[in-house]
Each structure stands twice: as C-alpha cells, then as structure tokens.
Amino acid sequence: TEGVNSAGARLAYAGSGVSLDMTEAGIHGALEVRIEYGHRLPFVEVEPIELDRRRVHDVNVDVTGSASADAIDRRVIKALDLAGAGELDFVTVRLAGRLGAGVRWSGPGTDLRDRAFHMRFDTAGVRPDYDLGGYRGREPKTTEERFARELLAQIDAESDPARRAVLERALYHGLDAFKLREVAPAWDEVVS
Question: In this structure, are residues 121 and 90 in contact, taking their beta carbons and an 8 Å threshold?
C-alpha cells in the first residue's frame, strides 16, 4: 500500500543463480522473501536459498623455497583445504614466490588434479631465486655477470610495464641458460 511504512529489508538482489565466470565467488541462488502484514508494522524478511552447490575460489599460494614440483602441489592442496574448495568447485590458483635453481612446476600432479572440478593456474608471480642484487653490486667479470648487469640496467630504465616484463623473462631465461644449461618456458606469464 502506498505510504505505508515497513521494517526489515527494503531492497534485495539475488544476483545470478549460478556463477557465470571465474570472478563470481560466493553463494549463488535465489531469495525467499517473507512479508508479514496485518498484525503490526509490516515486516519484511529475506533469506538466501542456495541453488548451486558449486563455488568459485581464488586462491593465492606462496611457493617460495619449495624444493620440488611435489612440494608445490602439497602447498596448493593445503591452500585449497584452507579455502574450503571441493571437488565440485572452480578454482583459480595464483602461484607466487621464488624458486631455487632447477625447481620447475609445469602443472598439477595426480593428487592435485582431481581436487576440484576445474582449476586454472596463474604462474605469473613465480620467479627463480637468483641473487639479482649481487649482479648489481659488483663489477662484472664473466659473460654471465655482464649479461645480467646489462639486462638489469635495461629493466631499471624501462617505463613500459609490458616491455619490462619481456626484459625480466629474458633475464631469467638467460640466467637459466648460464646456470642450469637449459632454457624452459617456466618464466613466461601464462595462465594454464
């Protein structure tokens, strides 16, 4: 009735009944609205009704110091457990941190693979644990040191973030070639 005051909810929006993409975290469903009218001041109550048991999670995992790909998987599994992610859920796992020489992670192992309905891994925050300060702090004597010093100078001078990212990847790939005698696409910013 126009002009009648009420108590309780004034506005409610249920949103989509299910997650529409990987950014829509939380419970999805409908709203049950109850309106009491006639006994006192009209009163409105709203209760969410879950329609989709699946959840979307965005999980950050620090992999610094992990000694192997299995150790990285164990850290991810622990983070999924802490987030409450289950086998029906959609999960974006954002890995970040510094890995020791020779430690590579190219994707989830068997134990991790089945932990959720769908997982996407963002490895853009993972870098090798090279002592870049050491290259800056001394006069270069070797080809490796000259290479690192030159690329660090270019990185420091670069203002374009995209170009800077290319130079950083080149630095890490080059140091891998010098130190590990291999170059793997481990430092490319790829979401798998």
Answer: no
Structure tokens at 24: 């829509």
Taking only the tens place, the pLDDT of each residue in 44-102 is 888 888 887 888 899 999 999 898 989 999 999 999 999 999 998 999 999 999 888 77
Residue 80 and residue 119 in contact, taking contact as beta carbons nearer than 8 Å: no
Q: Is 135 left (phi over 0), alpha (psi -120 to 50) or beta?
A: alpha
What are residue 96's DSSP bridge partners?
A: 62, 125
Residue that is written with structure tokens 């998987």 in the block: 73
DSSP H/E element including 179? helix 161-180
- pTM for this model (two decimals): 0.69
The string of DSSP codes covering 109-140 is -HHHHTSSSEEEEEEEEEEE---HHHHHHS--
Question: CB of 54 within 8 A of CB of 88?
Answer: yes
Find the angle CA(31)-CA(33)-CA(39) to the nearest 5 degrees: 165
Report how far apart the first and last C-alpha atoms of the chain are (Å, whole number): 55
Q: Give the containing element (helix H, strand E) for 156.
A: helix 143-157
Structure tokens belonging to residue 114 = 């089945």
